[in-house]
Amino acid sequence: MNKPCAITIAEHFSALSDPRVDRTKDHLLTDILTIAICAVIAGADTWVAIERFGRSKYDWFKSFLPLPNGIPSHDTFGRVFAALDPTTFSACFSAWMAGIAQLTQGQIVAIDGKTRRGSFDTASAKAAIHMVSAWACSNHLLLGQIKTDEKSNEITAIPQLLKLLHLQGCIVTIDAMGCQKAIAKAIVDQGADYVLALKANHATFFEEVRDFLDERIDHGFGPFAHAYHETLDADHGRIEQRRIWSTSAVDWFEERNQWAGLNSFVVVEAQRTVGEHTSVERRYYISSLSGEHAQPLADAVRSHWGVENNLHWMLDVAFGEDACRVRQGHAHENFATLRRIALHLLKQEKTAKVGIPTKRLMAGWDNKYLLKILTG
After folding, report:
1. pTM for this structure?
2. Is the C or the N end of the chain the one with fewer CB within 10 Å?
3. pLDDT digit string (tens) for 209-234?
4. Looking at the chain, which residues constitute the CATH 3.90.350.10 domain(s)?
């Protein structure tokens, strides 16, 4: 009766090659993947915990998995995930998400990076792993992720991630690290738009845009057409007023033709008041969207931080990602993918009106609820 969940997982990860030699294959790769995904959903965060979870649920797993030699040991889980190709594993997950995601015209896709602090290995001088993720803001769906090379950064990883995605009609937002000509072109080539944060890593460009927009705000836009939008939020003693100005006046910028699709410059001014203290900050952006309407640009800028609140924060708080010390071979990167699979499945389950941590507890207690999470 439970076989559909095993079949579904097998289909999604059918492109994975088993890294083991035949003589060491006492357990099926599909069994290992299924048990690991279920265990992480239910709160396991080590290979030992995954093994213990599998043994405690042996009768249930046996009802839909072959398990020719019982539940794998924690050493087996560790060896398999340390050797499993992380790029293919992540690509299978991305393909799974692409199959269920319904990205509509104008949907905002935020691309942002996160360093896995627990992956740093002092003994081997191995740097902490940095992952770049693509997050569909409106339906809270992780579309894909990719690890940056040890001697590289997000600038080279983002174009690789973009190749995994189908972004036609979407608006892609990226922080200042991704404000690069090649990245802007890659987004436009996919038929998407971009809103890219502009900071001092492009010193001359940043200064020219900042000075132009600040001058217009302080002394009037004059002949330059522009749009304006304002929001006001107040809660828990904090008042935040956000003002956004946008303009399609980009012809004055000498290098405008080097930036594919460049159509507007944007500035967001955030004034925050907490008690008697008030701070004001201005942030600057470039975009392929028209500057004739400020609200879509304001929505894109604000939605970008959803990847921090709904993905990175959740992985740290509910899954303890930064504290994870799994790091042998490709294990840390693959465990990161397991967490994202688990988070996606938990978010898709809507019947229990509780938070992710409680859902994880419920999944460990109740086989029927765990099955509901697995089958959507």
Report:
1. 0.81
2. N
3. 999 999 999 999 999 999 999 999 88
4. 92-312
